[in-house]
Amino acid sequence: MLLQKNTEFGYSRKDVIIIGVSIFGGGFAMYYGLQAGGLSAGIAGNFVQLFVVLGLCIGWIGSYIFRVANKVSCIVLTPMTVLCCVTWHDQLTL
């Protein structure tokens, strides 16, 4: 049995390194850009930390919601009740 490689972006070691370096580089660029804009080093560091952490959290949660939304379709009776959820491999009844 031959295994197929996933060729989508983000699934190889090279892609993960590219993502990590770009986040790291973006943080440095934002830090020095804010300092060039007149903020002190401490305040610039606080802003960079806030934006990078919030960006990572929102991005991670957003990607999770996107993956779940593409795998699950639900039959909604009312806004508060769900009859059943059907995934790509099985059926769950709530």
Q: Could you describe the 3D structure shown?
A:
The protein is of the alpha+beta class and 94 residues long. The protein has one domain. It has 2 helices and 3 strands; from the N terminus they run H-H-E-E-E. It has a 3-stranded antiparallel beta sheet with strand order 1-2-3, covered by helices on one side. A hairpin with a 2-residue loop joins strand 1 and strand 2. Helix 1 runs antiparallel to helix 2. The longest helix is centred in the middle third of the chain and has 31 residues. The protein is elongated.
Descriptors for this entry?
94 residues, alpha+beta, 3-stranded antiparallel sheet, 3 strands, disordered C terminus
Brief rundown of the structure:
With 94 residues, the chain is of the alpha+beta class. The protein contains 2 helices and 3 strands.
What would you call the quaternary organization? single chain
Strand content: 15-25%
From the N-terminal CA to the C-terminal CA, the straight-line distance is 37 Å
**Structural domains: how many:** 1
Low-confidence stretches: 81-94
SSE order, as H and E? HHEEE
Give the strand line-up of the largest sheet: 1-2-3
Can you summarize the main beta sheet?
3 strands, antiparallel
Helix tally equals 2
- How many strand elements? 3
**How would you state the average pLDDT, rounded?**
79
Percent of residues in helices comes to: 55-70%
Radius of gyration: 21 Å
